[in-house]
Amino acid sequence: MSNVVLIERPAEAVAVVRINRPEARNALNMEVRRLLAERLAAVAQEEEVRCIVITGNEKAFAAGADIKEMANAGTIEMLRRGTLKLWSSIAACPKPVIAAVNGFALGGGCELAMTCDIIIAGESAKFGQPEVKIGIIPGGGGTQRLARAVGKYKAMRYVLTGDMFDARTAHDMGLVSEVVPDAEVEKRAVDMAKQIAELPPLAIEQAKEAVLRGLDASLETGLALEAKAIQLLFSSQDQKEGMAAFIEKRKPRFTGR
Asked: What is the pTM of this model?
């Protein structure tokens, strides 16, 4: 089994999916892309896993696509790679996914982080979509997700120049959820994953879906999705347990039922 993508279990109900190509700054070749999608999908199917963290190492989350692998590719070869489907499958994960970003998150690495639901970044992290500097454009969601996250004018500034930006700038623009010291990134991501994992899984799943579906819908449609989701949750045991625990002033025990 290839070890370029590792699965770790740092805490109960939490899985860490780690990109493990340190010799290439975790560059995203096709093997890594396929294994990321496959292994994320596999852990997402495990009932005991309630939150997932994607990370790299202290020097790089992922420094971009593997340029050597694609430099001589043609149109048909690029079409057959199916990169969009792989990244879309990560974005479609029903369970919360947190990106823990240290070092470089450039090109495909930035795009991978943007498929996640929460981004925790180290103070020294660097983001960017530098594809124009090598004659192409972002091809894994960079022109679309970045604009949705930070707005047209900020996105254009970085997509059209290829410039990098730091974690504080990313946070100020609304791309990064939280900035922490470099040494605390993974711990903070796992702690947040543990916090989410203690909450009712059905409510977490419905909340995630309502936010994501609502982003691509009108406000009226989004509100209708939200209303249906909350109504559905009143059939869950977790809703009864959560409200009973609140009334009885005790800690709830959520089972995902």
From this structure: 0.93
Active-site option among 37, 107, 113, 131: 131
Catalytic residue among 15, 62, 63, 65: 65
Structural class in CATH, domain 5-197: alpha beta
Q: In the annotation, is 209 catalytic?
A: no
**CATH code for the structural domain at 201-248:** 1.10.12.10
Catalytic residue flag (residue 12): no
Helix locations, the chain, DSSP H: 30-44, 67-70, 75-81, 83-91, 108-115, 142-150, 152-161, 167-173, 185-197, 201-215, 219-233, 237-248
pLDDT digits (tens, 9 = 90+) for 96-149: 999 999 999 999 999 999 999 999 999 999 999 999 999 999 999 999 999 999
pLDDT of residue 1: 56
Of 64, 107, 108, 242, the catalytic one is 108
Instruction: Respond yes or no: is residue 198 known to be catalytic.
Output: no
